[in-house]
Amino acid sequence: MTSPPPLPDRYDFAATEPEIYRAWLDAGCFDAHAEHSSRVGGERQPYTIVMPPPNVTAILHVGHGLNNTIQDVIVRWARMRGAEALWVPGTDHAGIATQNVVEKLVAAEGKTRFDLGRAAFVQRTEEFVARTGGTILEQLRAIGASADWSRTAYTLSPELSVAVREAFVRLYERGLIYRGHRVIHWCPRCLTSLSDEEAEFNDETGKLYHIGYPVEGQPGRELVIATTRPETMLGDVALAVNPDDERYRDLIGHSVRLPIVNRSIPVIADAYADPTFGTGVVKITPAHDANDFEVGRRHSLPMPVVIDETGKLGEIADADGRVPAELNGMDRFEARERIVEILRTSGELKKIETHQHAVRHCYRCDTVVEPRLSDQWFVKMEPLARPALQAVRDGAIRILPERWEAVYVNWLTNIRDWNISRQLWWGHRVPVWYCDECDPPQDIIVSRDDVRECPHCGCPVRQDEDVLDTWFSSGLWPLSTLGWPDEQSADLAAFYPTDTLVTAPEILFFWVARMIMLGYEFTGRAPYHTVYLHGTARDTQHRKMSKSLGNGIDPLDVTKLYGADALRWTLIAGMGMGADVVLDPEDLDKSFAAGRNFGTKLWNIGRFLLDRVGSDPVQPLAAVDRGALTRADEWILSRLDAAIAECDRALGPLWPTTPHDSPDGLVWRESERYAGLKLNEYAEAARHFVWNELADWYLESLKSRLETPGADREAARAVLVHAFDQALRMLHPVVPFVTESLWQRLPGRAAGEFLVRASWPAARGAKQSRAAQEFEQVREVVLAVRQIRGDNAVAPGKMIEVLVRPSGADGGELRTLLEQELATIGRLTRSETRIVDDVPEGAAAHAVIGGGTEVIVPLAGLIDVEKECARLRGEVAELEKQILSREGRLNNAKYVERAPEQVVANDRAILQEMKTKREQLVDKVRSLCGA
RNA sequence: GGGCGAAUAGCUCAGUUGGUUAGAGCACCUGCCUUACACGCAGGGUGUCGGGGGUUCGAGUCCCUCUUCGCCCA
Predict the structure, then answer these.
(1) Which of A339, A238, A349, A342 is nearest to A285 (CA)?
(2) pLDDT digits (tens, 9 = 90+) for A325-360
(3) Strand B: which nucleotides have any atom within 7 A of a protein Cβ?
């Protein structure tokens, strides 16, 4: 048999990664098959993740990198666990965001979207998306995303648009969508309404203006109000005071004169007025404040509109004569200054205070949002929220980390109706038509199909101009990507409900909660059983990485410099659940050292191992006679079992398994609900095994065994290949490329086999063998010698003499064991090791290890006797302290009486051992230091 | 203003129902280019568990309180 060419010294990730990714694609490794799903009679339980669709105009940033790496780790793990794993990729048309991008392009040509007109603008946007829209999905391939690209979805595709219409019509028919006339959040730059969630709060230092409104019929008396937005006063229709507020009770029912506008408005009593805020008097501007609107409705007040859609003052509706000519057409902030000036001149401005308050801004363009009275489509949320709340309470859905569940419950409990219409051009047009000809006017027509003529009078109809909130379509994502509303869809039957959703907490309300609500509404089932919320990528000053701050990291830069595995490892291993990932955009070398170093280490382990093992056939471990295994073999196999168990513990169960009387059928039991998906703990457990156990101990201990042909060599080869094979499987979900590359080279690998499709390691279940425990004794001796070397600064390469005096406590078994392992100890410590019965005279360094065994390094001239004495005395002193503390505790009658027996007994045993060790150390000090 | 959470090593974080001498990774310090790996090897823990009080034989862990910070909501 010919030997394979030796592996290159350096792992060439730049050449290897694309090659391996191509091989995976060609072999269809990421393709899921509906017919394999156990839900439709197949042999595999499905495991599905739908990718949070990035905006179609997005380019990859480290946040996407983190989000998608987490998903890829989970989906690769599920695939190896034998699931029919499906990861559905796709993009979001991202209404406002995309429209803004194209508007900027148009603006560069000196035009607005209105110059182009709706049809041309939409076409322009479609062309832009067609040209650039696939970019981010291409980029995800470079970081190893194992998504099923044949199912790539797009929220504005014809298929998904069908789902959107179906959802709208069904909700309408159920009475859950309605047309509402109320004050909503309006962005004067984007020229659209926004949902509550899209109008984000910024804490700002503003001003609180105190303005006097003269009381009519009581000269000299005035009511002073405090407002942050004096420009809205032109639309004031009343002043409100709290009915319980003694200060103003006599004025209820009277009138005041509205300054500037110079007209009479009433003083009303309403609990909305907060006696403790400002002066306790609040001006009521129903058309320009949501709370005032409610007050206005309660008191049947007029609702004059004095600010237009672009934020300029004017007499827009029912405002006859309220806006003075000099303010007409003026921008709202300019008008604020001007009005304050006018009031200052007239003496009606009483004072100005600085004021901390939260101001709503458009989440897309950061413009200050203007409350605006208008007609919008709303979704009635309370009935939708009920099952979504119950699901989390029952445990049908878990949210990780746990603390977000409280936030979710709190939001859903106080949910408000959702404004879903947007005055944009880019999106799903509201499927509502109006007939202007019918007499009397007909009700609106809500339809799944386009309507051309009025079903009542046959006249032409016009479609509602608005489009739907982008989040309305993404809220259907788990359904629509799997074929809903087509009840015959194979994917829907095979893969819905999906399993885990991985996203950032910022869109818990925007997206996650709405998907859950719509999932229950349309299927009666939760869309997934696990919501995993991960942290944010931040720079070293803990600022969120962002384009505008210029502190971002391009994941593709990282893959070019260190490879995709290095990127993935660094992100996964460095991220506690829900915790932010801190990286330094100024120093990629340092930031990604962990991933780069680990990849190199893995490569070197593989290089060494494959070279020494050779390509001759290797026995499967099961075929190796147990008696042929050395203590080191047994030890590494037991460590492997422990590592597998630890990885499984950290990753937790894939699915909930506890039957429950709810629509979902299965719920998380408390013991497992918050237990899994600790990806960093899993990664660390796997890393610790391969690096600190397999490489540092096992490989080092068996070098000579591989040089001599024979049964022992074959046993070592079998164990080595088995352990490394299992280690590569364990690590594959995090670092798929380098593990696949090495795994392919293991002896006996058949063509067409892929690690990506290999089975997840299973512990052998062999109980901790005696031989494995005995190897721990060997390790203790080695560690003691190394510590002596370190403490005495003896160069690691220098051959030394080591004497071991076994404790006689076990009747000589330990002595036999150590005699058999002398060669291993010698190799691992670079020493001539001997067993002795007596401690020789002369200068030597000493260590006492478990059970009283002594390790002696007689190195006259190599060690500093003074230093060694000091060290030993220090150790004795430390021991004394601990003995004292423990004795004190054991002398406490209450402790002995009340603490569990086990705890006390354990304490006594430890005390005894400490005392033994102290005696030995004191002896050493006496003989070595003569004191 | 309401709610939730956090505060443990230089940094990011674990620490299960209270029970040995509080841990991990990275960073750091010391010694080494020891024939797979200096992107490495060997050794080293550097801590008033935010402050104060309480419960308990025993508190990082439970209770109260204060401080600081973060997130969500209004």
Answers:
(1) A238
(2) 887 888 888 888 888 888 888 888 888 887 777 788
(3) 1-6, 11-14, 19-21, 24-27, 30-34, 36-37, 39-44, 56-58, 71-74
